[in-house]
Amino acid sequence: MRQPQHLHPVEPARAPNVDLEAEADLARCGALKDYWYVACLSTELKAGAPLARTLFGTGVVLFRDAHGRPTALRDRCLHRNARLSRGAVFDGRLGCPYHGWVYDASGAVVEVPSLGPSQRSELLDADACAREGLQPEPCKLGQLQHFPTVEQDGLVFVFMGGPDASRARAEPFRVPYWGHAGWTVYFMVTRFPNGVTNLVENFMDVPHTLFVHPGWFRKPASKRVPATVRRTAGSVLVTYKQEQDTVTGLGRLFNPSGLPLLHTDKYYVPNVTRVDYLWGDHGFVINSQCTPVGPTDSLVYTAISYRLPVDVPGALVGRALKPLVRWYTRQVIQQDVVIMGIQREGLLDGPGGGVYSGTEADLHHADIEAYRCWLREGGHGAGPEEAEREMAFWI
Ligand code: FES
Ligand SMILES: [Fe+2]
Q1: Which residues belong to any copy of the Rieske domain (predicted)?
Q2: Is 177 found in the same domain as 129?
Q3: Which of 31, 104, 134, 391 lies at 20 to 30 Å from 372 by C-alpha?
Q4: Which tens digits make up the pLDDT trace of 200-224?
């Protein structure tokens, strides 16, 4: 019997370019976890209050120890697994909300209220406790998983790759122009409904600005923009040849005298982008550090650093303009949140999500994926080889 013919040829299955599930799973993300990730702003971590975060699908509780240093522990009580971040911090120690077990900053159990003042089992001796699988005193109860932390440039970083932070494959990323005279720096924290690969690609993507931010960055110019893409040592640097480009919106504020524009976009493995719009020694820099919460859920810490062409000592004019600049950048980021949600909808719509197509204009996206894929698979060897290529797109 003749088999019915397919009207359309069946496309060969292609592997997804981006595996969001694996990338955000601590057990399957390979070497992606071996870097420092921002857990919160320094100002979000108040003395005396725990803070809940999720990184790579893993609950982490942060608090400040008796010296004010940030501490990060697994957010799950050893006793009956209650969320410790719902408890209380006192004297730099963390108390569980359920039965009051107390943990010190290293994650050791230091007090069990139900053991009373002696803090020892009263009826059962050590042998009987061992037979029942119980512990006679707090110090025998073991230790919560502890994650190394670093506080730097107004950010608290956590290392999820194990207890030994010397294994980190890079230092925590420095916020551009943090503490530099004449520069104003502020942070924005944004929850994005998408995974880190798609976010860093979005932050490095110029063609979308015409569609997602119409009139907010630049007007459609029917102009060809050549660029150089350089992939080297865990970074992807895109240098645009658009010296005469005019940036609309707040761009005019930064370049009243029409100086040539130096526009570069840079990606640093595994989760950081830095976008520079500089005219001489002033302009603005947008630095985004993405923290994976789950497969399509991320927290992005954006540092906006800017310097006006003319200012008085102390960058008083720049600082006075901060509410306006903050409002502008919040609008633009919110437009990206919406488009990332729209991309997510398509991604999750049945099989085939994560299989991407591209043209010359997506050359740097392929470089980002090459690095992240290499790290997800363990990051062995030297990684994607160095390359420098020309690309072009129209805006
Ligand atoms: S669940 Fe934490 S003390 Fe009981
Ligand atoms: Fe955007």
Answers
A1: 37-117
A2: no
A3: 391
A4: 999 999 999 989 998 877 666 678 8
